[in-house]
Design brief:
Layout (H helix, E strand, L loop, with lengths): L1 H4 E4 L2 H14 L3 E6 L10 H12 L3 E6 L3 H6 L1 H9 L4 E6 L9 E5 L3 E5 L7 E4 L3 H16 L1 E3 L9
Parallel strand pairs: 2-3, 3-4
Antiparallel strand pairs: 1-7, 2-5, 4-8, 5-6, 6-7
């Protein structure tokens, strides 16, 4: 049964489709980890709209990352989202001791997951409505969250 619920992917387009599906299926919390979120489509207007709908419906987002520079430089839509929903989005930056972690995932409501096995590659899997598929990554996220500090604040800079 778990095999039927697991969708393997190897391309960026497949990853993006599963990521959007994870957002659409989730209602309460999205928990994301990636070294820099460079391959996540956080700058896409459709993802911005989906995240706004999710947050306006009562959801919250927890993000952990090694570096914030890519988001700050390339995702102005996400920066606006962070400003507009700062009370529902928490972003944390890992300590240097965790920089060897190279996996990447998005967990939705503790039952949906999109996971890349290594952040340098697109190979991964997605599972929906399958709590067992999220257990390891959820435990991993909780450990990362505890070992990280607040970062990527919704401040106005630049223009």
């Amino acid at each position: 049964m778990d095999e039927v619920a697991t969708h393997r992917f190897t391309t960026h387009l497949e990853f993006e489709a599963h990521f959007r599906d994870c957002i659409a299926r989730s209602r309460t919390v999205l928990q994301l980890f990636d070294p820099d979120f460079a391959v996540f489509p956080l700058g896409a207007s459709e993802v911005d709209a989906a995240l706004r709908h999710f947050l306006a419906g009562g959801g919250s987002i927890e993000m952990a990352m090694h570096r914030t520079a890519h988001i700050e430089r390339h995702y102005p839509r996400f920066q606006r989202l962070l400003r507009d929903f700062s009370h529902k989005i928490a972003c944390r930056v890992t300590s240097r001791s965790l920089h060897q972690l190279t996996d990447s995932f998005c967990i939705g409501d503790q039952v949906n997951i999109v996971r890349r096995f290594h952040s340098d590659h697109m190979r991964g899997e997605a599972a929906f409505d399958c709590p067992a598929a999220t257990e390891i990554s959820l435990d991993r996220f909780e450990g990362i969250w505890l070992e990280s500090v607040p970062g990527l604040h919704p401040t106005t800079t630049g223009l």
